[in-house]
Amino acid sequence: MGETDFPPLKNDLILRAARGEPTERTPVWIMRQAGRYLPEFRQVREQHDFFTICRTPSLATLVTLQPIDRYPTLDAAIIFSDILVIPQALGLEVEMLPGKGPHFPSPLVTPADMARLKSSVDVEKELSYVFEAITMTRKALEGRVPLLGFSGAPWTLMAYMIEGGGSNNLHKSKTWLYRYPVESHELLQKLTDVIIEYLVGQVKAGAQMLQIFESWGGELSPQDFSTYSLPYISQISTRVKSTLQTQSLPIVPMTIFCKGSWYALQTLSNLSYDVISLDWTIDPVHAKQVTGGRVTLQGNMDPSILYGTEEKIKETVTGMIEAFGSNKRYIVNLGHGILPTVDPENVKIFLECVHEVGREVAKR
Ligand code: CP3
Predict the structure, then answer these.
(1) Which pathway, metabolic or otherwise, does it act in (predicted)?
(2) What is the ipTM of this complex?
């Protein structure tokens, strides 16, 4: 797909913020903005299994647009999918158990199990449903806001593939790191190669910005993060961008979200990512100082503030925007995904407050 195949973009605030250009107000979107806190999403989920929605472009489009239709204050859409579509493309079975989350009936146990993964993955074919959903959604958006694509990062995906689902201490995947380092690197590299092709495919299909989720980054010590996460997320941004350039595709902004990896902030700001997404444990002033204006910062309100009073939400938003403090290089978001039991009315209050305060602060 080429840019001319899509309706012209009417709101490019988030793209400008990501590129370090000034914005007249701070752009905002919410991780997991299409999800169970919305009654209209729960209604679709009653009729369809989670991965059926992901695999049916018309349903993925419908659900991606739900928060955009409800909140005209959102400045980006993110394609409805999941990070676990990559393990599925590699040949592992993944199911989504209601109320429990992802479950792998046969996770990887020892390195010998890597033989169960496809030796080469035809990304174009195995993940075509995501690409179709992106193209369909980009058209249906009619240029209202940019469409974001995403992928899980290699370490987070490896951990899911070995733990078989959520886990408190990741001891199974860490066993691999400490007993089978060579095979661990082999698996991480295999994931990296697929992720790169997948992300390029998303841009080809119409994604206008990309986010990489290293949701389990903070489970690693700084040293292990340098060994098992950093080299791969670094490869992803450089190789995605060089491939986009070679294929004459738009070189879209890229965001890295390493939850819990506060120690890596400075290092991350020297990679070729445009945006670093922060969790709520990081002080905005510290983050600005350490990253020295080299990247745009995104985040970082504690998702649980949305359970607070209207006053508390407004007070927190105001403090956050003032601390990140400029009309440049800042995108408002939560520090992690929105929780399923949040009241959609509080989301409205949050978004409207971001607009109001973001405009005021930009004028200063
Ligand atoms: O942000 C969006 O609105 C786009 C869609 C999106 C989903 N998952 C939909 C989803 C995105 C970007 C993700 C990413 C994702 N998936 C991550 C990285 C972000 C993060 O939260 O750290 C991870 C770790 C996953 C894996 C995953 N998927 C888990 C752990 C769970 C269960 C926890 C939960 O919130 O239920 C899911 C399920 C999931 N992915 C749901 C949605 C809307 C809810 C499942 C349902 O409807 O039954």
Answers:
(1) Porphyrin-containing compound metabolism; protoporphyrin-IX biosynthesis; coproporphyrinogen-III from 5-aminolevulinate: step 4/4
(2) 0.92
Quote the ligand 1 centre to 143 CA distance (angstroms).
25
Split at pLDDT 50, 70, 90, the class of 326 is: low
Does any ligand 1 atom lie closer than 6 A to the CB of residue 215? yes
pLDDT for position 3: 78
- Closest Cα to atom 25 of ligand 1: 83
- Is the peptide bond between 333 and the residue preceding it cis, with omega within 30 degrees of 0? no
Nearest Cα to Cα of residue 11 among 25, 110, 20? 25
pLDDT at 282 over 80: yes
339 burial type by CB count under 10 A (0-12 exposed, 13-18 middle, 19+ buried): middle
Phi and psi (nearest 5°) for 230? -50, -50
Structure tokens at 337: 């995904």
Distance 96 CA to ligand 1 centre (A): 10
Q: What is the pLDDT of residue 364?
A: 80
CATH architecture of 3-363: Alpha-Beta Barrel (3.20)
User: Of the candidates 100, 84, 99, which has an alpha carbon nearest to the alpha carbon of residue 195?
Assistant: 84
How far apart are alpha carbons 313 and 118 in whole angstroms? 47
Decide whether any atom of ligand 1 lies within 6 Å of the 35 Cβ.
Answer: yes
Q: How far apart are CA 155 and CA 267, in angstroms?
A: 17
Cα dihedral 16, 19, 21, 24, rounded to 10, equals 30
In the predicted structure, residue 327 carries a pLDDT above the cut 80? no
Q: Please tell me if the CB atom of residue 96 comes closer than 6 angstroms to any atom of ligand 1.
A: yes
Render pLDDT for 145-177 as a digit per residue (tens, 0 to 9): 999 999 999 999 999 999 999 998 999 999 999
Tell whether ligand 1 has an atom less than 6 A from the beta carbon of residue 337.
Answer: yes
